[in-house]
Amino acid sequence: MGEPAVKREFVLDGLDCANCALKIETGVKGLEGVSSCSVNFVTKTLTVETQQGRDEEVAQEAKQLVKKLEPHVQVKAKTTGKAPSRKQVLVLQGLDCANCAAKIEKQTGELSGVTTSTLDFVSKKLMIEVEDDKQLPSIVEQATQIVNRLEPDVEVIKEDSLAKGTLHEDHRKAEMRSKILRISIGGILTGIAAFAPLAFPFDFSLFVVAYILIGGEIVARAIKNIARGQVFDENFLMAIATLGAFAIGEYSEGVAVMLFYQIGELFQSLAVNRSRKSITALMDIRPDYANLRVGNETKQVSPEDVRIGDMILVKPGEKVPLDGKVLEGVSMMDTSALTGESVPRKVETGSEVLSGFINKNGILTVEVTKEFGESTVSKILDLVQNASSRKAPTENFITKFARYYTPFVVITAAALAFLPPLFLSGATFSDWIYRALVFLVISCPCALVVSIPLGFFGGIGGASKRGILVKGSNYLEALNNVKYVVFDKTGTLTKGVFDVTAVRPAVGMTEVALLQYAAFAEVHSNHPIAVSIRKAYGQDIDETAIQSYEEVSGHGTMVSVNGAEVLAGNAKLMNKYDIQFTAPTEVGTMVHVAVNGNYAGYIVISDEVKEDAAQAISALKELGVKKTVMLTGDAKPVGEAVGKQLGLDEIYAELLPHQKVEELEKLDGKKLKKEKLVFVGDGINDTPVLARADIGIAMGGLGSDAAIEAADIVIMTDEPSKIATAIGIAKRTRRIVYQNIIFALGVKSIFLLLGAFGIATMWEAVFSDVGVTLLAVLNAMRVLKVD
Hints:
Elements: E1 5-13, H1 18-29, E2 34-40, E3 45-51, H2 55-69, E4 74-77, E5 87-93, H3 98-109, E6 114-120, E7 125-130, H4 136-150, E8 155-158, H5 167-195, H6 202-227, H7 234-247, H8 251-282, E9 290-294, E10 297-301, E11 311-314, E12 324-328, E13 331-334, H9 336-339, E14 345-347, E15 352-353, E16 358-359, E17 364-368, H10 376-385, H11 393-423, H12 429-442, H13 446-465, E18 468-470, H14 473-478, E19 482-488, E20 494-505, H15 511-521, H16 528-537, E21 546-552, E22 556-561, E23 564-569, H17 571-576, E24 589-595, E25 598-609, H18 613-622, E26 627-631, H19 636-646, E27 650-652, H20 657-670, E28 676-681, H21 687-692, E29 695-698, H22 705-710, E30 713-715, H23 721-756, H24 762-780
EC number: 7.2.2.21
Protein name: Cd(2+)-exporting ATPase
Transmembrane segments: 180-198, 204-223, 404-424, 436-457, 741-760
């Protein structure tokens, strides 16, 4: 007996090239002592089996080989079992300041040991990933300290313990009521001081008390932030502006401006929170419980507590909590939460159901096939909620812009306050200081920092409601520049449901015998064509009659059945083995069969074009797509027939997987720098091409793990027309985002000029800050109303 093999797995972090993955696999296979090797490009995993005693040497040689082929790729040993988490999600309850959110994200990302730090202002989630899981508790503690330093009123809660923090919402409501009461009393005192016939110092005393009630927390926060070195924020700006008004004797305006600001902040907070809830409601597909069958009893449990193989009961009106197979019952399912489809889907015994479906009428008994963490609803929620970690270029630009904009305006305001009185005759310090204070109030960039991420997140949420999963704002923005769309054929433009439409035996061969040989040849294949042949044969296949079985990549199969050598596949397979035959003229996919070196005939298999495929191509051209192309491994007559029917610009047929990548690269070389190329495939067989395109779109991804992993965008239904819908959502999102940028910058620019010339007062300045932010947030929410 030989030494037992040792299996090891490595993660190839940073592997983005499908061709390089193949080179790595080939290279490692050639190392001494390697019995088998495979590279999974989707999961970026290198699996190696070696001889006992050679595993460490092979591991080192494999790492050196990877470094030689792909220097930027990091090779990390994949741990067995459940690896300790290197990621933590913190929920920042009460975070309402977008500027502060950007500071928290920046400072957390600079902590030692942190690989990535992303703060999603919309969902209030700070996602931290670290190099070493042992560092995670310490880094989480440091991140919490950063949050407490920058935003003392924000509560930091670990997402996995969020359910325990339910009292926080009541606490927030109590705080809101207290704030409204203070503002109300302060407003009344301001009115009395301003309009009642009171002499100094009584009116001044009332203004001071009113100011402390209304703006005391703002001033206190500004002082704390200055002590921590955080100067340029809205608390500092409002404190300086209003206290400056007091200093030059404008008591009523100082208090009134703070009052207006606080009221505006209150409305802004309500608008942002309502917007968040609107987006969250779109993704309200998480099941609350599962009815677990234990013997003859049923008990409600958390979906996380259910295991594979358990039986659950799904009653009418309930969400399906986990993916599974129906064992008993018949019902109609509302799948709109996952797919956007309005027409209910019928399920019965043997049907697969996915978590997130809603049971309309019957009672179903379901056997669970995936744990909750691996279920469809979990993956969709994770994708959408974490989409903000991939920021669009516009978001990154605004973040950088805001970082420099506020200090610039503050420095300008200081110059405005002190330089004109020194150089202009007749200019007074009180007048120019007032103008500078107006400048300070205007300078807060909240309108941009809040509304733009909200717009992109709303676009992603609106797309998910229509069955389109976008993995990041960057992909949503990139859809605006799509000029080339490349399609796979089978399962993308066609239904992928094959049927045998003709059996054409050669002289001396019967239809039954030809079909039988083909069925034996396709016995181990899961390809739809193989399934259709076995279905047409309709009889049990005795696998003991098969002496050998070999797949010839891109060509077909070669088997030995009861001593007969059988070839079954495409025309290339016949040519490869010098089998003489006459090419058929029929349209359809041909499976040629040869027995003992003699041509035995062919089987015609047809696939139906999807109902909306032609409409999809037409809609893309209306949206400005320059060229639509089809790449298929199918026969040329079949590809050309489908392409002509749909109105495609170019058709490339009879391609092997690597040839598809080559054709895609040729097209990529023709496009302009800003133009984007999309590849649309089934997400399973087309992984290398999906990865190579600027944007990879997986069609028919409902329940397909490979599709969700491989693509940048997943169409949860089988409808090509959803590609045009996705582009439409992207264009509308960008239009609304640009409206907010132009509106916010335009209004602020006008008021900065008016303030500099002494025309605008603090009242207008506060409107240009809080009012513009409120209007921008409301405008951003229009993206959810895409038809």
